[in-house]
Write a structure and sequence with these properties.
The protein is mainly β. It has four helices and ten strands, in the order βαβββαββααββββ. Strand 9 and strand 10 form a beta hairpin. The longest helix is centred in the N-terminal third of the chain and has 13 residues. It is globular. It starts with a strand and ends with a strand.
C-alpha cells in the first residue's frame, strides 16, 4: 500500500491549533509546569518519558498526516526550561526541550515530516531511506512544548470534537509538541499517567473525503 502524506490537512489543522494557543498560566515554584492532581489518579504535568506509538491507519487511506508515526515507533520526550519568548512574555506555558527517536527505525518514517531531509538540523533519513547502520538514537533539540487545558468553551468548540469524542472533558490537559526545523507537530491529550493521544488526519478515496484516527502514545515501563 503506497501512502502519501498530506500537507494540506496538516496546514489546516495547524491553523486551527494556532488559534487555540491562548496562553494558560500554570503556577509553580520552579521553572517546571505544575498542575493540580486529580483525586482519583495522578496525572502527568508534562509528557517527559519514553513512549511507544500504537496506531492502525485505515486500510483504504490515500494520504496520511505528515505527523504520522508508524506503530511501534519509540521516542523520548524531554521538556525542560522556558523558551526565550516565554521568558520575555513572562509565561510558564511554553518550554523548550528535546524529542529523541529510538531504534529500531521504521523505513516509513522517511515519508513523514519528522523523517524529511533538510539542509540544516538533524536528519534521520538519507536519500529517502534510513541508513542501514543507523542504530543510535536521533535527537531533535529544537522541540517546543506548549501546554493548555480545555475549558467549557473549548469542550464545545468543533475543533476539539475529535478529543472530546474520545473522552476529553473540561480541565483536560494538552501539550502541543512541535519541531521547528521539521514543521512537525503533535497535539497530545495527556489522558493518563501512562497514555497520551494525538490525532492524525487521513484522506480517504473520494472527493473531500477526510477523516481522522488516534495515535496512542503508551509510556514504557520505568519511564
Amino acid at each position: 500500500m503506497n501512502l502519501h502524506f498530506s500537507t494540506k490537512a496538516s496546514e489546516h489543522r495547524s491553523a486551527m491549533i494556532s488559534r487555540r494557543w491562548i496562553p494558560a498560566l500554570f503556577f509553580a515554584c520552579t521553572l517546571a509546569v505544575h498542575l493540580p492532581l486529580e483525586a482519583k489518579e495522578k496525572l502527568p504535568t508534562m509528557p517527559n518519558g519514553t513512549w511507544t506509538i500504537e496506531t492502525t491507519p485505515p486500510a483504504n487511506a490515500v494520504e496520511l498526516c505528515p505527523e504520522f508515526l508508524p506503530g511501534g515507533t519509540r521516542l523520548r520526550l524531554r521538556a525542560e526550561g522556558p523558551t526565550r519568548l516565554a521568558i520575555e512574555e513572562q509565561r510558564r506555558d511554553e518550554l523548550g526541550g528535546t524529542l529523541t527517536l529510538l531504534p529500531p527505525f521504521s523505513a516509513a518514517l522517511c515519508r513523514t515530516a519528522i523523517g524529511s531531509e533538510t539542509s540544516f538540523g538533524t536528519n534521520l533519513c538519507r536519500g529517502g531511506n534510513v541508513p542501514v547502520d543507523s542504530q543510535a538514537p536521533v535527537s531533535f533539540d529544537d522541540a517546543v512544548f506548549v501546554f493548555s487545558r480545555l475549558d467549557a468553551k473549548g469542550v464545545a468548540d468543533p475543533d476539539n470534537e475529535f478529543f472530546v469524542g474520545l473522552g476529553a472533558g473540561k480541565g483536560a490537559r494538552f501539550a502541543t509538541v512541535f519541531l521547528k526545523n521539521k514543521s512537525a507537530q503533535w497535539r497530545l491529550w495527556l489522558k493518563s499517567a501512562n497514555e497520551m493521544v494525538s490525532e492524525c488526519i487521513v484522506h480517504l478515496p473520494g472527493k473531500n473525503n477526510i477523516d481522522s484516527f488516534p495515535m496512542i502514545w503508551r509510556r514504557q515501563p520505568g519511564n
